[in-house]
């Protein structure tokens, strides 16, 4: 799979966790089944896992050989 595709999937997972689960009826259903504390633990672990995957896939996409540099700042603008 290409590096950018993995980055898109990681971002999609992170957004889906927060948009489709955290503030919806699905959260209430899950908390009724497993309890509030268990839900918070699972949701926190899933969020941290998604962030780690997002960071790792970003680093892979940036350092990929497929990543072409289209423009670079002149030396005088670099700090």
List its salient traits.
mainly alpha; 72% helix; 79 residues
Structural class: mainly alpha
Round the mean pLDDT to the nearest integer and report it.
92
Helix content: over 70%
General form: elongated
Strand content: under 5%
Count of separate DSSP helical elements: 3
Query: What distance lies between the first and last C-alpha atoms, to the nearest angstrom?
Result: 35 Å
Q: What are the low-pLDDT stretches, counting only 5+ consecutive residues below 50?
A: none
- Rg, Å, rounded: 18 Å
Strand runs, count? 0
Q: What is the N-to-C order of secondary-structure elements (H for helix, E for strand)? A: HHH
Describe this protein's structure.
The protein is mainly alpha-helical and 79 residues long. It has three helices and no strands. Helix 2 (25-34) packs across helix 3 (36-62). The longest helix has 27 residues, at 36-62. The radius of gyration is 18 Å and the shape is elongated. The two termini are 35 Å apart.
In short:
With 79 residues, the chain is an all-alpha fold. It has three helices and no strands.
SSE inventory with pairings:
Elements (H helix, E strand, L loop, with lengths): L2 H20 L2 H10 L1 H27 L17
């Amino acid at each position: 799979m290409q590096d950018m595709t993995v980055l898109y999937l990681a971002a999609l997972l992170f957004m889906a966790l927060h948009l489709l689960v955290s503030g919806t009826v699905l959260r209430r259903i899950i908390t009724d089944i497993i309890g509030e504390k268990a839900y918070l633990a699972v949701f926190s672990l899933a969020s941290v896992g998604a962030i780690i995957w997002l960071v790792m896939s970003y680093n892979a996409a940036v350092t990929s050989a497929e990543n072409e540099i289209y423009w670079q700042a002149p030396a005088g603008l670099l700090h």
